[in-house]
Amino acid sequence: MEPLGAIVLAAGLGKRMRSAQAKVLHLLAGKPLLSRVISAIQPLQLNWLVVVVGHKADEVQRLCGQPGILFARQREQHGTGDAVRAAREHFAGFSGDILITCGDTPLLTTDTLARFLETHRARRVTLSVLTVELEDAGHYGRVIRARDGQIIKIVEARDASTDERTTREINTGIYCVKADFLFAALERLRPANAQGEYYLTDIVAQAVAAGLPTQAVLTTNPHEVEGVNSREELATMEKTRQAHLRRQWMSLGVTLEDPDTVYIGEEVTIGQDTVIGPNTQLKGKTTLGIGCRIDGSAYIENCAIGDGAHVDFSCVLRDCELASHAIVGPFAHVHAGTVLAPHAVIGNFVEVKRSIVGEHTKAKHLAYIGDTEIGRDANIGAGTITCNYDGFTKSKTKIGDRVQVGSDTTLVAPITIHDDVYIATATTVRHNVPAGALVFNTRQEQIREGWTAAKRAKEAARKK
Asked: pLDDT tens for residues 279-316?
């Protein structure tokens, strides 16, 4: 098979976005526009993939660079022809086809590109351009054909005659061109147009004039080849993409109680029979297991949530893990680095940060747990605070299995509370506590070793 290269044009200013950020870095369903285009191209078994950058080049390379991608710089923006010419250095000695796309067409699919490439090669043409028909062609370049249907040229809207503007077939900005013709044609471009730019579209007329075989390949899905030029267009495209993602997940067995109010990121995965309530945002690389319940008004980003877990109303979770059947909320905040074991419960107005909460352990009301490890079957009373920061350093709190922490308790780190400890209400604990002890404050901290076993024996005797 003939070698295949690709050039993605991502150097533009994107003036209509009115943004300090490069246009191709704006997000659609949580991914930069350029990253989505690259993802559509990569499965095509490329020999080279070159991204042409210009505006905010370093930032674009940092956020969208990955192994196998080469970058070329367009130092000044003098049009699409000049942008493609900037990639020439990476194609020295290359003989084959070059696919050219824009970095702002994020709904483009691999299937469409593969069909376009297949048609180009099957008909053995020098140049192919992908086109689409629109009811209102607006500011898009028009595709002008001869009476026999052969393409004659592409003319930009601002340079088109009145008759040419009535044409509904437009240029998508996607080409497949023989490399030897492409770079020779680029050298012959002249900025003889209203913008004083080097138009890539002019290579079509060059190929026709030279008698080389060309074709316009009409695609039937206008949404897929739409470019993003303004915030309004981005919002419209986001709405289109979100509708697709919602339909996809509902078809796979996910319940969305109010679909129009649920936001689902591109990299999110959701298990069967999970129920998601209104006004929920699922972002980043979040995974939801089977049979989860998200009650609504939740913000969940980069979280791993196990089967049967329940996120109650109005919670914020970032970069954390919830094991199977864990419960969070309502009104809870779970920060990065937190791991909840199976059946752990974090209740209303509880904040957890960089902590491990053991199996069947509960912190159900008004607590702050930071830099803490808690064992299994413990209970953290309302108003408990782990004091992990002294103004200079952050220290850890360790709480063992079956520890009972009374309400309004303050645990001053670094500190270790061993298994089976009881901490009385309103106690400030500053020292390590041995297993099985009772801790309470009078004028000073009191520790009674062996208290837990005696208490349990007494309670057992009373129940007989």
From this structure: 999 999 999 999 999 999 999 999 999 999 999 999 99
Contact 129, 173 (CB under 8 A): no
Question: What one-character DSSP code corresponds to residue 54?
Answer: B
* Model confidence pLDDT, tens digit, residues 195-220: 778 889 899 989 999 999 999 999 98
Q: What are phi and psi of 250, to 5 degrees?
A: -65, -35
Q: If you search the block for the tokens 């297991």, which residue do you land on?
A: 289
Burial class for 76, CB neighbours closer than 10 Å (0-12, 13-18, 19+): exposed
Cβ atoms within 10 Å, residue 312: 21
The DSSP line for 232-286 is HHHHHHHHHHHHHHHHHHHHTT-EESSGGG-EE-TT-EE-TT-EE-TT-EEETT-
Q: By C-alpha distance, which of 343, 382, 387 is closest to 365?
A: 382
CATH numbers and ranges of domains, the chain: 4-225 (3.90.550.10), 255-463 (2.160.10.10)
Question: What is the token pair recorded at 140?
Answer: 């898009």
Helices (H) and strands (E) in the chain, counts: 9, 42
Average pLDDT in the 165-169 region? 83
Residue 159 is classified by DSSP as: G
pTM higher than 0.90, yes or no? no
Instruction: State the Cα–Cα distance between residues 127 and 273, nearest whole angstrom.
Output: 49
If you compute the radius of gyration of the chain from its CA atoms, what whole number of angstroms results? 31
What is the phi/psi pair of residue 369, to 5°? Answer: -125, 110
Determine the 3-state secondary structure of 219 from DSSP. coil
**418 catalytically annotated:** no
Identified catalytic residue from 90, 365, 418, 431: 365
Q: Which residues of 423-461 are buried (b: 16+ CB within 10 A; e: fewer)?
A: bbeebebeeebebbbbbbbeeeeeeeeebbeeeeeeeee
- What are 85's two structure tokens? 């010419």
∠133-190-214 over CA atoms, to 5°?
40
Query: Taking the C-alpha atoms of 284, 287, 292 and 296 in order, what is their torsion angle to the nearest 10 degrees?
Result: 0
What length does the chain have? 464
- In this structure, what DSSP letter does residue 222 have? T
Nearest alpha-carbon partner for 246 in 236, 254, 234: 254
